[in-house]
Amino acid sequence: MLKRILLFLLIFLLFGLIGFFFVAGKIVDRQRNTTAEMDGSAVSEEAKALHQKLLIGDLHSDNLLWDRNVLKKIDHGHVDIPRLIEGNVTIQVFDAVIKTPRGLNYQKNTANSDNITLLAMANRWPVRTWKSLLQRALYQADVLQRAASRSEGQLTVVRTSAELQRFLDSRRSNPRQVAGLLSIEGLHALEEKQENLEKLWDAGYRIMGLTHFFDNEIGGSSSGAEQGGLTPLGRKVVQQIEAMGGIVDLAHASPKVVEEVLAMATKPMVVTHTGLQAVHGNPRNLSDDQVRRIAEKGGLIGIGFWDGALNAATVDDVVKTIRHAVDIAGIDHVGLGSDFDGSTHSCIDSAHLILLTDALLKAGFSEEEIGKIMGGNQIRFLLENLPG
Ligand SMILES: [Zn+2]
Predict the structure, then answer these.
(1) Residues near 135 by Cβ (< 8 Å), separated by ≥ 6?
(2) Ligand 1: distance of its center to the CA of 41 in Å?
(3) What is the pLDDT of residues 277-299, one digit of tens each?
(4) Which site in 14, 16, 293, 302 is 20 to 30 Å from 356, CA atoms measured?
């Protein structure tokens, strides 16, 4: 009898472990990364012709967080290489999320809890990533690099403007390829050590988000408990990012951090994924004044596709937000910052970007303007601001 009970418990445990390590992460992925109805049947012939000519660039995807093979097309979430190619995307920024608070919200979060530890375990990341935020960043960079080396030329990770230029030259004769660029979402990845910035750099990170949903050792978050400015370490880190030739990302930064970075920065900065408070008033979105001043510094603002950045996850709402951003910042400072696969309900996935081209045309944007918004600005900005 005892033997039977033990056997039963063993089998129960085994199924539990299989469920945790092979199923749980995939269920969370499927539940968190959803898409609104995508119907391409009404896309105009004019939009189809234009979309094929565009160079498209998206500034933010959290794809690396999930238990996926980015080279394989799947039926959920927003990004994989086949869908990026289908959507005629030239460059996708792949972001590393390393820690998010439990009960995450746009108003106020502390750094005391972390969802990613359990997800890292469930997704079978190496044990070194379970406790170390730096290792989580290094691991995700490695996942992208390894995917690129298996991709038979369909994915190229770029680190410099010269590499991006070489990729653009090569893509002219073979458009069935995508460039990837690494960004980090929150420099708590440094684990309070400035010298770790070089480890992120060596792993390929070129866009550095200072904070995420909570205040960290670098500065305040727009959703943090105190929402303060840059710390002394934060000021040094911003200077070092600029000295190395990296790009500062102000997404999720507190208003004080935005203010202080604007005051001290000598290079243009990016906001990889945001909405606008004038369209949808959540504290995570940028004010008109911030948009204007980031643009005055030569910066670039990526407009998000998800319901939290917008009033609703619709392509029309993205267009409305882009319209306002262009009115405030000027046409050369607005791009796409989808937040694909960022635990988001998105209006479209990467394969259906043509719906945005179509909606921009119908909203009266010229072909030249659409070319800039969809990717011309992103590519020009990266060519100008990545290290040579
Ligand atoms: Zn984010």
Answers:
(1) 126, 128, 129
(2) 31
(3) 999 998 999 999 999 999 999 99
(4) 293
